[in-house]
Structure formats: C-alpha cells, structure tokens
Write a structure and sequence with these properties.
The protein has 243 residues and is an alpha/beta fold. It contains eight helices and eight strands; from the N terminus they run H-H-E-E-H-E-E-H-E-H-H-E-H-H-E-E. Strands 1, 2, 3, 4, 5, 6, 7 and 8 form an eight-stranded mixed beta sheet that branches. Helix 4 (111-120) links the parallel strand 4 (95-101) and strand 5 (121-132). Helix 5 (138-151) packs antiparallel against helix 8.
Length: 243
Amino acid sequence: MVEEFTRAAAGFAERTKGRFQGLDAVAFSHAARGDVVVEVGAGTGHFLSLFEGVAGALIAVDVTPAMLEQARKDHPSVVPVLGDGARLPLRSSSIDLVTSAQMLHHVLRPLPILNEMRRVAAPSGSVLIVDQVAPERFEEAVAMTELETIRDPSHASSRPPSAFRVLVQAAGLEVAEERIVESRSRFSAWMWPGEFPAARIEQVRTFIKERGRETGMDFEPDGDDYLFTRRRMMLRATKPDSL
C-alpha cells in the first residue's frame, strides 16, 4: 500500500481536489469551533482541510511520507504525523473529532484501527467515518472489490453499509447518525492517465465492458467514456457513555 500511494501521491492529490465538497461533512460531524480534529489515513489532506475554518488544530496521520509531504504543501495548516492507524501516537481520550475518509477500504482488517480511533476520542467527542460503500448484495460487493483491486492494488475490500455498522459497534462505539450520498461519476475522472499506468486503465476498461453490470455500480457507456454511480457513507459514532 505504501508503495502504491508513494508512486501516485502527486497525481492523486490533483485528481481528488474537491471530491469531498458536496458532502457537507463538517456540519454532519458536529465539530465545534476550536476542536482538535485528527484524520487517520489522511493522505494528501483534502478531507481534513475542510475543517480549517472550525478546528483549533488539524492533525494528519498517515503511513506514507510522500502523501504527508503533499499534504504539507497543499494545506500548510495541517500538522503531518507519520504513524500507523492501528497504533496511533496520541493520548487516550484526547481528541474531539477522530475521522477517516476514503481510507478503510484500503484495510483488510479495519477493527484495530477503529479500536484506536475510539481510544483517542474524548468522552464527549465523535468518530467520523466517510468511505465508499458497496451494494448489500454479496455478489455485487465481491465484483466491486475485484474491479477496485484491479484499478488500485492497495484496495482491500468493498463493504456494504451494514458492514460498517457492525465494525463500528464491534469497536465499542454507537452509531449516532449516518447518511448515504450517491453521485454519478465519469471513468475518465476516476482513472487519470497521469496517475494510473496505461495497461491498468485498459484492464479496468475491459472488466467494465465484460462484467461491469455485476458490480451494482450502474455502468453506462457514454461515447468513449463510462458513467457510473458512486455511493459513499458518512457515519458518526460516539462512545456509549457520551450518548
């Protein structure tokens, strides 16, 4: 995973600018002015930067130095911290809002990370998860995982909303609020030639042509391009004694 994100850091940062703007994630998070906000697996910091007008401190934790260096360049207010999400270098019960955005689908065993996010969250704080979700139908989730792994070898699993609820509860958290956001996207904006090798782009195109209907992503040809549906889940959780 580190190798893939190191290779793609600059292109990834450019391609993903603005991808969180339509989610209204700051309001959904219930973040208060002056809060300390930590993002686990922050990458290039685009999601964390949404909180610049509210947070008192923005801390980006990631395992990839190249991603953190890009975050520092793009968002000077972000404090980069090199660290593993399963062993966060943060004090217990010290963070007002602990977030992850588009990260957990890169993790095969996300429970240790969620346990750590719960540990560092303040008693009155929140844990916010934003991630792409698969359809609930098992066969479609499997096909989506296969497609996503061809596109990005660092992808681990495409999970339906029900799986995120189970994981959050297994980590000792309680779901306070959730929202599913759907949007139509273009293949050409999903796989930039400057970010992805040409051979991999062709592999994904072939998969979509032959098996795209199996993924539940509603692929539709549009000239030389494809349109498809992206579904993301926002889930805010709290520690049980803070409800």
